[in-house]
């Protein structure tokens, strides 16, 4: 079958990547989608079992840190574009093991850029390298203000430092070699297939199992939450419409203090589990704060809204209800990802 484009999506077996892969496979049967993923603890092919038999979908297992493998992948599939999401993504793990974050997030990104630079030489204007990044590169806000695309980078955690570095390399390959690159920096995502090391799915799993819900510090830190499918849709719009060398912020205009979010989640869980009101909130436990914990993130996505017409679709309370329902309906998925290694991680992180 002849495809109009071949797109390599890295990290497609992860949380956001699986939503991006699903969207592209279903919405663009004329594109061939190659999902390249190492299947680390965070990668899970069960996230894609509804679409993995589609004619325009191929999974390739591999490590972006292995430059020989990446060069071969480019030679074998001759992609027209890369949408790069593969990363080590959890801030707490970056505090324990920063080097792994440098390897995957920085060296892995540079390996992909090098392969693109070599393979696409002479035709940069018809090929695109899209880097999916985070608002954490901008550092922390005080009580007011928002991150715009012009905010100076000021990362604080090893995770955000590695993502900031990879963003700089992507821009450098545009400015130096003329590669067509695009970057988007998104706020905190939530939704289905979110690995339960992150706040929302971890809290859902613990409430369900009557375990303490760990809230770092006083729960005063603020995050700006976006429905993961709205992020996938933003990536689709930016991939197709953005000019070369541009950056877009993506966010939900939806700021929540962690403690308020957890209280809301507890109320939703009480309802879904037929518990007395206030029952789940008794599980809230304040624990030692995260080192270097950024106080507040808030994204100004006006550029994306005005230039490319994207707006978030889902109101947060509704999205959180849907998310809770998904986790309660997908017990097998949750049990699989919280067995084995997860137990060791959990013990080391929370006891
Ligand atoms: P995730 O941890 O759920 O998934 C990461 C995926 O990358 C996994 O499937 C994993 O197997 C794969 N991977 C890791 N190392 C690899 C390697 N060396 N080679 C190939 N594959 C590898 O992450 P996520 O939350 O889905 O985030 C995806 C991307 O979006 C990341 O780049 C992250 O920085 C960015 N991002 C995440 C959020 C968020 O709220 N989760 C917000 C903004 C941006
Ligand atoms: O057990 C917890 N208790 C707690 O209070 C955990 C895991 C987190 N928290 C706090 C820390 C943060 O203030 O909740 C907030 C959210 O934490 P995470 O879910 O770990 O997300 P965050 O650190 O904000 O980073 C996320 O958003 C930006 C993603 O993991 C990143 O990949 C993304 O770039």
From TrEMBL:
Any one GO BP annotation for this protein: nucleotide-sugar metabolic process
Coiled coil: none
Cofactor requirement: NAD(+)
Molecular function as annotated in GO: dTDP-glucose 4,6-dehydratase activity
All residue ranges annotated as the NAD(P)-binding domain in the record: 9-323
Gene3D superfamilies the UniProt entry points to: NAD(P)-binding Rossmann-like Domain, UDP-galactose 4-epimerase, domain 1
This protein's record includes keyword NAD: yes
A Pfam family: GDP_Man_Dehyd
Membership in a protein family: Belongs to the NAD(P)-dependent epimerase/dehydratase family. dTDP-glucose dehydratase subfamily.
Protein name: dTDP-glucose 4,6-dehydratase
Lineage, opening ranks: Bacteria, Pseudomonadati, Bacteroidota, Chitinophagia, Chitinophagales
């Amino acid at each position: 079958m002849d495809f109009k484009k071949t797109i390599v999506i890295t990290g497609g077996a992860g949380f956001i990547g699986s939503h991006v892969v699903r969207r592209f496979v279903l919405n663009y049967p004329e594109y061939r989608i190659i999902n390249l993923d190492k299947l680390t603890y965070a990668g899970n092919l069960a996230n894609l079992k509804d679409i993995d038999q589609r004619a325009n979908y191929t999974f390739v297992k591999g490590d972006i840190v292995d430059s020989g493998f990446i060069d071969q992948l480019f030679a074998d599939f001759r992609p027209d574009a890369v949408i790069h999401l593969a990363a080590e993504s959890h801030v707490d793990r970056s505090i324990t093991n920063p080097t792994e974050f440098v390897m995957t997030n920085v060296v892995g990104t540079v390996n992909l850029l090098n392969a693109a630079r070599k393979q696409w030489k002479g035709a940069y204007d018809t090929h695109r390298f899209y880097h999916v990044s985070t608002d954490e590169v901008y550092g922390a806000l005080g009580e007011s203000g928002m991150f715009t695309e012009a905010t100076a980078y000021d990362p604080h955690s090893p995770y955000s430092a590695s993502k900031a570095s990879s963003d700089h390399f992507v821009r450098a390959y545009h400015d130096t070699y003329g590669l067509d690159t695009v970057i988007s920096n998104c706020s905190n995502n939530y939704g289905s297939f979110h690995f339960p090391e992150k706040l929302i799915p971890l809290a859902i799993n613990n409430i369900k199992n009557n375990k303490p819900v760990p809230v770092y510090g006083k729960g005063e830190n603020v995050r700006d939450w976006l429905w993961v499918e709205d992020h996938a849709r933003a990536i689709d719009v930016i991939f197709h419409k953005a000019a070369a060398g541009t950056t877009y912020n993506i966010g939900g205009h939806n700021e929540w203090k962690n403690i308020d979010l957890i209280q809301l989640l507890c109320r939703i869980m009480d309802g879904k589990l037929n518990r007395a009101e206030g029952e789940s909130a008794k599980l809230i436990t304040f624990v030692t704060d995260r080192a270097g914990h950024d106080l507040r993130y808030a994204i100004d996505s006006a550029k994306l809204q005005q230039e490319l017409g994207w707006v978030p679709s889902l109101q947060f309370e509704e999205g959180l209800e849907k998310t809770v329902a998904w986790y309660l309906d997908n017990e097998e998925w949750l049990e699989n990802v919280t067995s084995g290694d997860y137990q060791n991680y959990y013990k080391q992180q929370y006891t």
